[in-house]
Amino acid sequence: MTIFIIQLLNSFFYAAVLFLIAAGLSLIYGVMRIVNLAHGSLYALGAYVSAWVVGGTVGHAASGTLGLAGLLLLLPVGAVAVAVVGAVIEPTLLRPLYRRPEEYHLLITFGLLMILEDAMKFLFGGTPLTAGSIMDHMGSIPIGRLLYPTYNLFVIAIGLIAALGLWWIIYRTKFGVILRATSQDRRMAAALGLNVSRVYVQAFAIGCFMAGLGGAVVVPAQAAVLGMGIEALILAFVVVVIGGLGSLEGALVGALIVGLVRTAGIQFFPEIELAVLYLIAMAVLLIRPTGLFGRA
Amino acid sequence: MLEVNAIDTYRGPAHILSGVSLRVDKKEVVCLVGRNGAGKTTTIESIMGFLPVRAGQILFHDEDVTGLPPHERAKRGIGYSPEDCGVFPDLSVSENLMISRWLGDEVAKRRNGGQRVDPDAQAFSLFPEVQSLLQRQGLHLSGGQRKMVAIARAMMLSPSLLLLDEAFEGLAPVVVNRFAEAVTKIKAMGVSILMAESHLGAATRIGDRLYAIDRGEIIFHGSPREALADEKVMKALRG
Lengths: 296, 239
Hints:
heterodimer; A: mainly alpha; 13 helices; 75% helix; B: six-stranded mixed sheet; 9 helices
């Protein structure tokens, strides 16, 4: 029973991180109809920046005065940095291509993926970076006869808060109405006086923030390493294929399905764990091509 | 109020409008009539800023708006109801109306410290039934209801000029009368209207002046009575 609860929590932890990445990917697609292949690299950038800032602070003599709260407050710096990068990328690289066919979007975001991967290699080197001190500070809580890292529960809570926060922003605020209107008919939104270009920058920056936050929350538990972005991108795609690209509910349910299947896979069928995920994605594509919550 | 001076507009490589000129004065209903594909929608979309104008000029309240994006034109008081109504399908009617009310408030604040005619009263006086649809999603509206919401939404902006693209298309004759009454009411509110219309009958009933367009060129300008008597106009409209 204890093992089952721990595995369930592990899958929720995993789902929380995947939700942050996939929700950003879905938000960007939902509003701008761009499949952002660089999304995984933006997640990795968030991880690197947060690990670098937290690691650098811990290494500094003054870190003792910061404590756990201070380190936790430093963690979202990576997400903010990625949002700023997003706010620069959208008007400079993506905006000129909106009128072009989708393959141009794929090409430019794939190019961006390569550039970001190299930029991270150049800036942070090949050595993995970690913010593990946060995990050490938070300790563990007993579950049955075993101990479970408190930090993992913190990440699950962040995932839940992010899901509720995003839902509230999209369905309950003025900005959400503007975002939904722009995503449904950008021409009409403009005719009603909405500055669509500004909405696009904001939506892209929020999507990037989500990816960066995913990276930021993961580095206390796992080190930031080169290539982590590609792996995350593939899994985020599995999530949005299952849930439906452009749907917030889809990102949440898709992340939970992938989290649960992956945890079960590691436990019971580690050799074909990823294959099972792809099979589920393929089945969804065949039966319901728009995903569980997506619209045609 | 609105002056379109010899504009040339392309859709991709296709040259659609050549040297189109028209004028809309204060408190005036002007109809742009023509067959399908004659260039009516292209003219309306050029005025709204969706299509770039390659030559010519568009003046609104004596300001050159030719290079301005659509949202800046809306902020200057141009309301727009497109042929397909443009009602956001996943937004409720209330949310659809909310967007233009925000902009209307913003514009009014900038112009005269926030004072303006109650936009809700103005919009709902045209189509009172829109009030009973407020919670319904745009997706679940009938064709006539969508047209009502689109016009009510454009009026929420408190515009000084309303662009209506095929406002009567697809409506039952009884409903057409309701829309014609609404146009008269809008005019009485001091708002000018430029309507693109395929049916000469409706246009001559409510228009103060008429422009006829054929193959991207204005072929006639005058009163509805003159249009009905003009063989060239009748021929162009009949095809």
